């Protein structure tokens, strides 16, 4: 599995500029000062592209999970769900589609391991835990998949705010 540091393109939600203009101005300056090129994902409705866009597994393999989290089910939040198929088509990205409900923010990864919050079981009640784990390991192409308890005070249930791989054998934990 590719780590974030092994990727070679940075994509930002195109709505970031309008929804968070002050942040975007500062962020753009940092990216430019560091000579980091970036591209925009067209037609986004939410700034958190990592949550809804496909997870990159290898140089040319991307898994597009179903992005339909429970916290976006109220009608007022439905309008924030971007059309991932349309975005992927616009940037010529071919994906492997999965019916599993997974937010990209709940995937903390290194080359051979993935950590997720166990909220993924809540989101995928329609299949057994055993089958869910098997499918996730197959899709991520890893043998090691770990689950940390979901802090229900974090409505998203994302692992990326709790744990982060520093290298293949070291994890940083947020308290």
From TrEMBL:
Keywords: Hydrolase. PANTHER family: AGMATINE DEIMINASE-RELATED. The keyword DNA repair does not apply. One of its GO terms (biological process) is putrescine biosynthetic process. It comes from the Bacteria. Transmembrane segments: none annotated. The lineage of its organism: Bacteria, Pseudomonadati, Bacteroidota, Cytophagia, Cytophagales. Signal peptide: none annotated. This is Peptidyl-arginine deiminase. The keyword Hydrolase applies. Pfam families: PAD_porph (PF04371). One of its GO terms (molecular function) is agmatine deiminase activity.
